[in-house]
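Technical annex B. To support the medicinal chemistry partners, we prepared a structural model of the target in complex with zinc ion, based solely on the information shown next.
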Amino acid sequence: MIENNETFEASRNRCLYQRQYRIKNKERIQKQQREYYIKNKSKINKLRKEYYIKHREHELSRQKVYNKTTAGVKAMRLANWRRSGLIDLDIDQLYDEFLAATNCDKCDVLLTTDQTTTKTTKVLDHDHESGCFRAVLCNSCNVKDRS
Ligand SMILES: [Zn+2]
């Protein structure tokens, strides 16, 4: 931090001095910090907690916005696929194929991609034993396939 009227040289010297001071007095500073913490424990913990809550909400809202972006939707979908056991060498290409598919590979019904799951919702079918991708199906065919 350069204060008013302070030359660059003076500022740098002050920094170096502070750094050396900290190195030289490391233990003493740590002891002071520990004592300060013990004395102000409840206050510090309260501030930490407040910061955490604020930070957490910020993170959650950031995540919410990201989840609505193209990249966010893709990341969520790929995570779901992997969790369900899908193994594919080129999952990015598979995702593109999935996005491009308009009709069910089995019954040819027009696929939908709404938030709520219906009979025509687009789903990725994979072999549960090998983990390999099989087809892009409507939800109805996928369920029938399983039984
Ligand atoms: Zn179908």
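Notes passed to the chemistry partners:
The pocket of zinc ion is lined by residues 104, 106-107, 109, 137-138, 140-141 (CB under 6 Å).
The mean pLDDT is 88.
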